[in-house]
Amino acid sequence: MLLRGNYFNILEGALLDISQNTDIYAADRFQMVQYQLIYRGIHDKRVLKAMSEIPRHRFVPDNYQHVAYEDSPLPIGEGQTISQPYMVAIMTQCLELKGEEKVSEIGTGSGYQAAILSVLAAQVYSIERHEMLAINARRLLKDLGYNNVEIIVGDGSIGLPDHSPFQGIIVTACAPKIPQNFIDQLAIGGRLVIPVGSPFGQTLFRVVKTETGTETKGILECAFVPLIGAEGWKEER
Ligand code: SAM
Fold first, then answer.
1. Domain 71-222's class?
2. pTM for the full predicted model
3. Catalytic residue list contains 83
4. Per-residue pLDDT averaged across 178-189, rounded?
5. Given the CA of residue 133, which atom of ligand 1 is nearest to it?
């Protein structure tokens, strides 16, 4: 009962919206938010609300829809993955979005993270190196009505200089180091969230750009697919 009470408090009535949602995965989504996110300390109400409403099952291949709300990443084709829900939540929470921001995502993948950003920020630019993934994500986001997202095909390891500065940059693939381009493309006060380390294990860092430099903090240990490109890893042949 305490959990129910916490849930009501945190989402401030969002349960009503969930119960009115008739898609067959609404209960799975509710459980995902409650047990994977709130229990582990995700507290940003806007992030919790977005993840309680956005149909994650639509962003995975048909044969994975029944496990779309489980506590793990899932394959999305091209050897890539949609990230674990908790990872999406903590990375998004680190951006501290209020709704007015222009943000970028490096690594569109399925488009799920872009959909979350779409409801939490004003404008989203997301870049993906695999054209097929970008085409699918673009189509799905349009079908679902996320109209403030622009998907670009290319090497996101150099960022998106033409659209900068950003109040938030989220990198959903692991880099060998923090590329200076990403810092350069942040507005003062802007937040960068990026996994850095080896392809076998990384630390998720949150970097805030200040008037005089940057403030960097390690958030947690993680395991992402590699950021392939000029400022990332070389592609294995
Ligand atoms: N955010 C995605 C989602 O919501 O489904 C998951 C991203 S997946 C963990 C990482 C993605 O980064 C892959 O789709 C991969 O192709 C992409 N990627 C890797 N290196 C990249 C680069 N240099 N530029 C753009 N995308 C890249």
1. alpha beta
2. 0.94
3. yes
4. 98
5. 14
